[in-house]
Write a structure and sequence with these properties.
By secondary structure, the protein is an alpha+beta fold. It has 22 helices and 14 strands.
């Protein structure tokens, strides 16, 4: 980035985004954060490209805010849509209706031209075989090389291409340029009030067993350094995060909602719900609930009230959340504003280990959702979208998508480092209509966080360190180095019938009166008629 040619390239690209300054309000200068250099260049990407014909793109995605204008509503979206001469016709989806609405649209031939889909392999096979989604042109990797490069980071993309005889789905990689560790793990950890832990006589390590976390909660409750009062429950965790505790003690910390099936050391498949390791955690959580260490109303708490109890109200000592730079920044901002506390002095993010002292997980597949296209989309419009996606995957494209408008939101210093010009505590996603259309265009924002100057270097480094720590705290048995494709790709009616919301199932057992082991055994017996056919199918595939 020190070379003049690279700097000139970025400057020219910023200028080529025709509305780069139009309507942009200069952020007040706060203490600037500096991000890492971006290696490489795509000088001349726009040379010879023709975007004179205006196109309107139909797109459906989750997290779209129907009240925001993603075509011309602010300076950022205008610079992008003017550059590629497009308008968006957007259909907002919710996490509740995402799967079902797309399933209906795809099967009826009514899907929007472009859509984000939470990939299901069994359905993908049907869609590809029956031509219900658009196949990309055979030469797409040559025409869109930056886009093609991202797919090499997702093993399932190559497998799909071989299975389907071509490319029908573009996987959205979590990490394309910045892989934090060799083994990609779950990125959810515990946020703990280290000042309260210290007051209770505990110095926090980087990783703790489940029983150690509960014992810590017991000591903090007894000391009550925050003067919360008699109703103080140190662990405030909504139902959806309970799988972190259960999965941290076993080998099936899985790939998806049905990921509780796994191959044991005996070479056979098992249902994790019936494992002793699951009962052991449920006993610990049931005891924590009965002793008032786990919030008495945890099963009614909705996002973000669980985190608000920690960073806004100050009545929680232990929260569960993504151990990512963006989430640490959110905690930092809330605690300063709402409690006048310094996050760095009061909080430590800690990984969760099993009772054997090891980190347990399954390899993450390095993607969240795919981009797919309706068969009705024209080849010309598909080409425009694929060109846009290709640019979004270049270094310059990522700079713009992650940092905003050059000269307004960021700049390069004399050494080629990215310097944020955002006001201290400001959020780029709140300033502009970026999420989800631009932030999740293809490469997800997880990747850039290690370079993003809008996050403190300490938070970026901590995020990476936690990934490395999880790998170091594991064995090949507790965190297998290979993907179990039999399990990942398994699809059947029996599996669909056996699907359930495990977090809700476990919550019901935790709060149920009576003996937890007796209740759990009754639950296992109740579910086994649905579960056994899946186990039989998996074992038959060996």
């Amino acid at each position: 980035m020190k070379k003049k040619g690279v700097l000139l390239s970025i400057l020219l690209i910023a200028v080529s985004l025709s509305a780069v300054s139009a309507g942009g309000k200069q952020a007040q200068s706060g203490p600037s954060q500096t991000g890492e250099k971006i290696a490489g260049s795509t000088e001349g990407w726009f040379a010879g490209r023709d975007f004179k014909e205006h196109m309107t793109i139909e797109h459906a995605d989750v997290m779209i805010d129907a009240s925001r204008d993603y075509t011309s509503g602010d300076a950022f979206v205008r610079q992008w849509t003017n550059t590629f001469n497009i308008s968006y016709k957007l259909t907002p989806l919710t996490f509740e209706n995402w799967a079902e609405r797309l399933r209906v649209w795809i099967n009826s031939g009514d899907a929007p031209e472009m859509f984000a889909w939470n990939y299901v392999h069994g359905e993908a096979i049907d869609y590809a075989e029956q031509g219900m989604v658009k196949k990309l042109p055979n030469d797409w990797k040559t025409k869109y090389p930056n886009l093609a490069k991202t797919q090499t980071n997702v093993p399932l993309a190559e497998l799909d291409e071989k299975t389907f005889g071509g490319t029908y789905f573009l996987f959205r990689p979590l990490y394309a340029n910045n892989r934090p560790a060799k083994k990609l793990s779950n990125h959810v950890s515990l946020y703990i009030r280290k000042d309260w832990a210290k007051a209770a006589g505990v110095t926090l390590p980087d990783a703790m067993k489940i029983s150690e976390v509960i014992e810590l909660a017991r000591k903090i409750k007894a000391a009550d350094p925050g003067k919360v009062g008699s109703n103080f429950s140190p662990i405030v965790c909504r139902t959806g995060w309970l799988n972190l505790f259960v999965g941290s003690n076993n080998q099936y910390n899985g790939y998806n909602a049905n990921g509780v099936f796994y191959k044991g050391t005996d070479g056979k498949y098992h249902w994790g719900g019936a494992d002793q390791s699951t009962l052991d955690v449920l006993k610990l959580l049931n005891g924590a609930y009965r002793d008032g260490l786990l919030d008495r109303e945890f099963y009614t708490i909705q996002d973000p009230d669980d985190l608000g109890a920690f960073y806004t109200v100050g009545r929680s000592a232990i929260a569960v959340a993504e151990s990512m730079a963006w989430r640490m920044t959110e905690f930092d901002q809330h605690m300063k504003r709402d409690q006048n506390l310094n996050y760095d002095d009061t909080v430590q993010v800690v990984n969760l280990l099993g009772e054997d002292g090891y980190y347990h997980d399954q390899l993450r597949l390095n993607y969240w959702g795919v981009i797919a296209f309706s068969p009705k989309i024209s080849d010309k419009k598909l080409d425009r979208i694929l060109q846009m996606l290709d640019y979004s995957c270049t270094d310059e494209g990522q700079l713009i998508l992650r940092c905003g408008i050059k000269g307004v939101d960021w700049e390069l210093d004399a050494s080629g480092n990215i310097v944020s010009k955002l006001e201290a505590g400001a959020s780029l996603w709140e300033k502009y209509a970026m999420l989800p259309v631009y932030v999740n265009m293809l490469i997800l924002s997880d990747d850039f966080q290690f370079s993003d100057p809008n996050y403190k270097k300490a938070y970026r480094d901590r995020t990476r360190d936690l990934f490395v720590n999880r790998e170091q705290q594991s064995t090949d048995e507790s965190f297998p180095p290979e993907v179990d494709w039999n399990m990942v790709l398994h699809a059947s009616r029996a599996l669909n019938m056996a699907s359930m919301d495990y977090a809700n199932e476990y919550s019901a057992l935790i709060v149920k009166p009576g003996d937890i082991e007796a209740n759990w055994r009754a639950w296992v017996n109740e579910k086994m008629p649905m579960i056994q056919p899946v186990i039989d199918e998996l074992n038959a595939k060996k």
